[in-house]
Specification:
globular, alpha/beta
């Protein structure tokens, strides 16, 4: 045990040794080494092993012992939001799944855990490790993070190259995106169109598929195949093992994009005006 802030805390091995259920709430890339070193040697027989994301288990980066009940509870929101909603008496919808299930109780354990963290107050949705892991990776890469980030930069670059002020380009292609996304979150895509101007709606309906056309859809199918085949999982684990040099270099490249400097300046000005 170690002393931290005046409290006596068990080390990981002692904590695992006394537990019937262990949740692996660690980064995907570190999960295999943490499990092998800190968890499996101490796990009692017939314990339950849970995950909040199916990556390591589905792509077999981590192979649990055969006696363990393996389950998934994936809240559809970040940990900070899960905790916040729980403290407010609410919750976040949770995806639940069973993996290996030697005693036929993994799904029941998953449902119980999801209810305990507040998911039962909003809703639980049955899934599989495969579906959760593969759709999550695809969504992050093609739409939510990779796709959205590149679409914003492309729009910004197009306006600036055409001679428009970068500040105007930032507002139109980045700043106002949240307003549209909030409308989609509340009302869906069709409902969002009912909340914007007729001009914006007509432009959406007649031009959107020219931007996201056949070439983009082909690229999305390629990205999905890389996810489903495990090639992305292998690439990411190899990048982690190599010290993340490629990831850092690409991050530095994008951090130096002109939209970042313009955005920082405008956000600071807007905060000062509040």
């Amino acid at each position: 045990a170690v002393q931290a802030d005046g409290l006596l805390v068990m080390d990981v091995g002692d904590a695992v040794r006394h537990a019937d259920l262990v949740m692996m709430l660690t980064p995907d890339e570190r999960m295999p080494e943490i499990y092998a070193r800190e968890v499996e040697p101490h796990l009692r027989e017939n314990a339950a092993l849970g995950f909040a994301h199916g990556f390591a288990y589905h792509f077999q980066k981590l192979i649990p012992r055969a006696d363990l009940a393996v389950f998934l509870v994936a809240p559809k929101g970040p940990g900070v939001l899960v905790r916040q909603r729980y403290q407010q008496g609410g919750g976040v919808i949770c995806l639940v799944a069973a993996g290996q299930d030697p005693k036929d109780d993994a799904r029941r354990i998953a449902q119980s855990y999801a209810i305990a963290i507040g998911g039962g107050r909003i809703g639980l949705m049955d899934t599989t490790f495969r579906d959760e892991a593969e759709t999550d990776l695809f969504g992050e890469q093609a739409v939510l993070c990779g796709g959205a980030s590149e679409l914003i930069r492309a729009g910004f670059e197009t306006l600036v190259e055409a001679g428009y002020p970068p500040e105007m380009a930032y507002f139109e292609c980045c700043h106002e995106l949240k307003q549209v996304v909030d409308l989609i979150y509340e009302h869906g895509i069709a409902g969002m169109r009912g909340e914007i101007s007729n001009t914006a709606e007509y432009g959406d309906l007649t031009r959107g598929r020219r931007v996201i056309g056949p070439e983009v859809r082909r690229a999305m199918r390629e990205i999905l195949e890389e996810v489903r085949s495990g090639r992305f999982a292998d690439e990411w684990m190899a990048e982690h093992a190599a010290g993340l040099s490629k990831m850092r270099a690409l991050g530095e490249r994008d951090a130096g994009h002109p939209i970042e400097a313009v955005g920082a300046r405008l956000r600071a000005a807007m905060r000062g005006a509040d």
